[in-house]
UniProtKB/TrEMBL annotation:
PANTHER family: ELONGATION FACTOR P (PTHR30053), TRANSLATION ELONGATION FACTOR KOW-LIKE DOMAIN-CONTAINING PROTEIN (PTHR30053:SF14). This is Elongation factor P. Pfam families: EFP, EFP_N, Elong-fact-P_C. It comes from Rhodopseudomonas pentothenatexigens. Belongs to the elongation factor P family. SUPFAM superfamilies: Nucleic acid-binding proteins, Translation proteins SH3-like domain. Gene3D superfamilies: 2.30.30.30, Nucleic acid-binding proteins.
């Protein structure tokens, strides 16, 4: 289906020259003088090559219809990441470059949204938050109240983040899967 370039968003899939591209970022630029343009960064699904295109905001681009479905994460191996559709038990393999920076946050049984084109996964959406354990951080400072000073910590998935001073090693915390930032202490 043809749509104007200014309506394209991250995660959309476009067809160009017979190849499919997933949009990594889309920005509409309105210079003081001249024509407004849409700057779109895309990754070719077939081989992972990244390209950057600039369109006039009124140019027509071919948007491919994508089906979004929930899948449970099973495991990772040398070939990629494996997910299962909970109702039909169909398994799907997703390439490492599609999962990208989301990989450390995947936990066994976690329900994610996969954007599917035919039988190929083109994008993944994780839950907004994940609960992980702090495996390494500086010791708790007695008497220090929750101030704006954060200290470095390493989580059970290997990601480094900043945590408040009262969080010690072994504490389970909730982080945003988008950037690994601390949200709160886990309530379990």
């Amino acid at each position: 289906m043809r749509v104007i370039a200014s309506s394209i968003r991250k995660g959309n899939v476009l067809e160009q020259d017979g190849k499919l591209y997933v949009v990594l970022s889309a920005e509409n630029i309105h210079p003081g003088k001249g024509t407004p343009v849409s700057q779109i960064e895309m990754r070719r699904i077939s081989d992972g090559v990244k390209i950057s295109e600039r369109y006039k905001t009124t140019d027509q681009v071919e948007k491919v219809t994508i089906e979004e479905r929930n899948y449970s994460f099973l495991y990772e191996d040398g070939e990629g990441f494996h997910f299962m559709e909970p109702e039909s038990y169909d398994q799907v393999q997703v390439a490492k470059d599609v999962v990208g920076s989301s990989a450390p946050y995947l936990q066994e049984g976690m329900v994610v949204k996969l954007s599917m084109h035919d039988t190929t996964a083109v994008a993944i959406t994780l839950p907004q938050r994940a609960t992980l354990e702090v495996v390494e951080t500086e010791p708790v400072t007695k008497g220090q109240t929750a101030s704006s000073s954060y200290k470095p910590a390493v989580l059970s998935n290997g990601v480094r983040t900043q945590v408040p001073p009262h969080i010690g090693t072994g504490t389970r915390i909730v982080v945003l899967t988008e950037d690994g930032s601390y949200v709160e202490r886990a309530k379990d």
